[in-house]
């Protein structure tokens, strides 16, 4: 395993027209997955991180900051960083753990994992702790990650984490797929009614999240105080950083302007984090543009409230599948696609 500041060396994926190991503009190795028509995904071996996902029109679906730093040991701002062995900032570990700024290796001989035979574009990665990692988190593990691009352009990430401690000790961790979505202007705007120029009325929200209504959440902006979501959808007019507990397996992000709906399906990940830094925090981040918060939204399938505990030899699996479907928007409902009931 290369050190975070080193240069990764990794075998190429099995020869395939659907997966190719190339050198990115930053000099970091990445695997390009190619689906039907113009669908594609790019996976950087640094961080095991999806840095691009495009639909069949070649449109980018993930947000990547224009100021993202592709230079170890800095984590890459955007795409889908992997948060392990912790989500958040606790103890002596860096925020969101170390998996997102380590070099992963291509695994050409992974243990069997069911795969739809129609899926041809995928890559298997593996991460094991270095000696330096063991000093800050003294547990031996194998983290296997399969990233797959479906025939319809859907993207899936399947994580398998195994406790390989030989001293009989269990370990516990929290986890998240820190998914950055590219959206149209996220701000809820207020306009004027054409019938009454003196009354300001809220216009339809360009971006909203559905599926988390009535859920309890921990508000990280209010010392993790617990509340219950009251609205019929989540809309955005200020900074948000909430952990929704026992969230449903399906969540939808509806983008009215782009007439697009992201559907997230999660397994083994009970929680969901919704985050946007808004203007003040955006300006305070070195690797984030001052106004880029307007066009990004993080909805992160996660295991946060209750850490996952593995005994030696035990394995956990968590999966995220994302599809981007055309949709129209009317009164907070998807029409004609009722994706959350699908």
TrEMBL record:
GO terms for cellular component: cytoplasm. PANTHER family: APOSPORY-ASSOCIATED PROTEIN C-RELATED (PTHR11122), GLUCOSE-6-PHOSPHATE 1-EPIMERASE (PTHR11122:SF35). It is an enzyme of class 5 (isomerase). Substrate binds at residues 77, 95, 100. It comes from Eleusine coracana subsp. coracana. GO terms for molecular function: carbohydrate binding; glucose-6-phosphate 1-epimerase activity. This is glucose-6-phosphate 1-epimerase. It catalyses: alpha-D-glucose 6-phosphate = beta-D-glucose 6-phosphate. Its EC number is 5.1.3.15. The gene is gb25478. Pfam families: Aldose_epim. Keywords: Isomerase. GO terms for biological process: carbohydrate metabolic process. It comes from the Eukaryota. The keyword Membrane does not apply. Belongs to the glucose-6-phosphate 1-epimerase family.
């Amino acid at each position: 395993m290369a050190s975070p500041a080193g240069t990764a060396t990794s075998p190429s994926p099995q020869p395939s027209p659907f997966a190719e190991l190339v050198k990115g503009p930053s000099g970091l190795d990445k695997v390009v997955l190619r689906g039907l028509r113009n669908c594609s995904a790019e996976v950087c071996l640094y961080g095991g991180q999806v840095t691009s996902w495009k639909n069949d029109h070649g449109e980018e679906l993930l947000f990547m900051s224009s100021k993202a730093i592709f230079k170890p040991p800095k984590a890459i701002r955007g795409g889908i960083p992997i948060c392990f062995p912790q989500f958040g900032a606790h103890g002596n570990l860096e925020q969101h753990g170390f998996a997102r700024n380590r070099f992963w290796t291509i695994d050409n001989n992974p243990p069997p994992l069911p795969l739809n035979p129609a899926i041809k574009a995928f890559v298997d990665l593996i991460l094991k702790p270095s000696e330096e990692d063991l000093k800050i988190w003294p547990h031996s593990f194998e983290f296997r990650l399969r990233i797959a691009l479906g025939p319809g352009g859907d993207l899936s990430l399947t994580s398998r984490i195994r406790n390989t401690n030989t001293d009989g000790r269990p370990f516990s961790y929290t986890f998240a797929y820190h998914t950055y979505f590219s959206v149209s202007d996220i701000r809820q705007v207020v306009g004027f009614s054409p019938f009454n120029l003196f009354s300001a009325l809220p216009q339809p929200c360009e971006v909203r999240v559905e599926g988390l209504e009535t859920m309890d959440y921990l508000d990280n902006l209010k010392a993790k105080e617990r509340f219950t979501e009251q609205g019929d959808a989540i809309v955005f007019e200020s900074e948000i950083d909430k952990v929704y507990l026992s969230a449903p397996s399906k969540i939808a992000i509806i983008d009215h302007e782009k007439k697009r709906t992201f559907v997230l399906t999660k397994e083994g990940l009970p929680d969901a984090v919704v985050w946007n830094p808004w203007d003040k925090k955006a300006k305070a981040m070195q690797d984030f543009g001052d106004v880029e918060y307007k066009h990004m939204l993080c909805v992160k399938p996660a295991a946060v409230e209750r850490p996952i505990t593995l005994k030696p030899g035990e394995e956990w699996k968590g999966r995220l599948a994302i599809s981007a479907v055309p949709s129209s928007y009317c009164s907070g409902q998807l029409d004609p696609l009722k994706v959350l009931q699908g």
